[in-house]
Amino acid sequence: MMILRVLRRNFSSRSPLILGIESSCDDTGAAVLRGRTLISECLASQMRSHLSFGGIIPPVAQDFHRSNMDDVVTKCLEKAEIEPKDLDAIAFTNRPGLALSLLVGIRYARHMSRKYNKPLIPIHHMHAHALTPRMENEDIKFPFMCLLISGGHCLLSYVKDIDNFLLLGESIDDAPGECLDKIARRLKLTNLRQFNNKNGGQSIEEAARMCTEPTDKYYFPLMLKYYRDCQFSFAGLKNTALRTIRKEERNLNLDVDAVLPDYPDFCANVLGALTRHLCHRTQRAIEFCEGQHWFDNVDERRLIISGGVACNDFIYTALSQMCERLNFKAIRPSKKLCMDNGIMVGWNGVERFERGIDICPPSKIDDLDFYAKCPLGDSYIDQVKAKNMSCNWIKIPILKPYARP
Fold first, then answer.
1. 2 and 38 in contact (C-beta within 8 Å)?
2. How far apart are CA 263 and CA 373, in angstroms?
3. pTM of the model as a whole
4. Fewer C-beta within 10 Å: the chain N or C terminus?
């Protein structure tokens, strides 16, 4: 607490004091920020509970939010040693996400606004992920490329400003985190002690790390190989992996709870195929932007990688190696901030408050709504398709063992 008191004495009076509230999916988060300075945070995670259900059940997630929201926000304010009346505004996630989860957040934000006469700032969940690195590094300027990869999203965009995103590609079916979760669940990795408290993506990454010499036993073809755009697809990888698991289990006559004996090799090849797909689509997006001359006057060109799947070191390393060859720099937030949290919502609220964007006074809060689905920004997907660009794929060292013809 002494550190926080010292920080407060040094705060600029012009830096807004913002409370951020996050409830878009299965984590209830809150944070208090003064400009770029994080004063306090609190997070109630539901991951362990949902692991036991085999996935997120929206009504269960809503019940957790209802039970945790007031406690999380109250503790966050107490840790910050501030009163709600001291806040300049309250930022909260209102799009996109699970409808039942978003409903809890907007109701609580309205309650605080009415009680303490504070303006609200509605936040786009994916914008918050994309802009979080700007809190940690003030040298990150617009424009930049952004790849958002998580359990529910895969979005590739050109970011011109805090509220100006051009969507270049998105998943036409599953998201990468969803794909990894379903493969890990069917592989029954949670039956092994080292994985029983990890989500599917974490389990597959750790299992793949155990494979020192990947073999060519498991073949996973490249997705959308003949489509010259920046769209993503992970359903083919997921379905091929699930069929392969069933086939191997039958061939080996495994018990119902048994895991494939060479699961590290299997996981390494799954992760390699998924990563190569991410790299290919991102390379084409970068080359498209260069063809549009969108980076001609940019001193340091950056690719921001955020969302829960950005925590995967294998994926991040591969994208970083690709970026080096393209004269780009790959950046991701701290791993903690890649996951859903109140900090990213609070920071987006700070930037919007300072610009005077989307600030809703208490008298107008009933006009605010939430949206389970919401576009990231203006779509340039058709323009990318129309270019019909072929690419000479960059050879990425970390992906060499998983190269396919």
1. no
2. 36
3. 0.92
4. C
